[in-house]
Amino acid sequence: MKEKHMNTTIKGIAAPLPLANVDTDVIMPKRFLITITREGLADGTFADLRFDNTGQKRPEFILNKAPWKQANILVVGDNFGCGSSREHAVWGMRQLGINACIGTGFAGIFYDNARKNGLALPIVSSESRDTLLEYSKNKSGEEISIDIVSQTIKAGEILIPFEMDTSTQTSLIRGRDDTLDTLEYTNAIHNFETQLDDRMRVNVIK
Amino acid sequence: MTRTLYDKLVDAHKVCDLPDGDMLIYVDFHIMNEYTSPQAFSGLESKGLNVWRPEAHLSVIDHVNATRSVEAHDAQSKLLIDNLGKNCTTHEIAFYGLGDPRQGIEHIVVPEQGLVVPGMLIACGDSHTTTYGAFGALGFGIGTSEVEHVLATQTLRYKRMKTMRVTINGDTTLGVTAKDIIMKVVQVIGAGGANGFAVEFSGSAIRNLNMAGRMTVCNMAVELGARAALIATDETTEKALKGHPHSGQFEFKGEKWVSDPNAIFDHEVTISGADIEPLITWGTSPDQSISITAHVPSAQDYVSPKAKKALERSLEYMGLDEGQSAQSIVIDTAFIGSCTNSRIEDLREAAKILDGRQVAKGVEAIVVPGSAMTRIKAEAEGLRSIFETSGFEWRPEAGCSMCLAMNDDIAMDGERVASSTNRNFEGRQGRGARTHLMSPAMVAAAAIAGHLVDVRNFK
Question: Which residues in chain B are closer than 8 Å to A205, comparing Cβ atoms?
Answer without folding.
Answer: 94, 113, 245-246
